[in-house]
Amino acid sequence: MKVIICIGSSCNLKGSRQVVEKLLALVKENHLEDKVELGGTFCMGDCVNGVNVTVDGEKHSVSPDTTEEFFQKEILAKVQ
Description:
Elements: E1 2-6, H1 9-13, H2 16-29, E2 37-41, E3 51-55, E4 58-62, H3 67-79
Parallel strand pairs: 1-2
Antiparallel strand pairs: 1-3, 3-4
């Protein structure tokens, strides 16, 4: 599974760094390093919403507060 997080200036202001850190920790906690590839990219063109994250090409809007819920629903549930 490939998860890409926007680290462009708008998403950075909305907390992309915290989202990246939380996702890294959650992947490690759940021992998914060999199943989930995390990456970063600059602007995904949807700056009005929260931090843009794609999971295998499907776009989502995430905030630091919703990262764990997002991980449970969109990553953990689909990778197992």
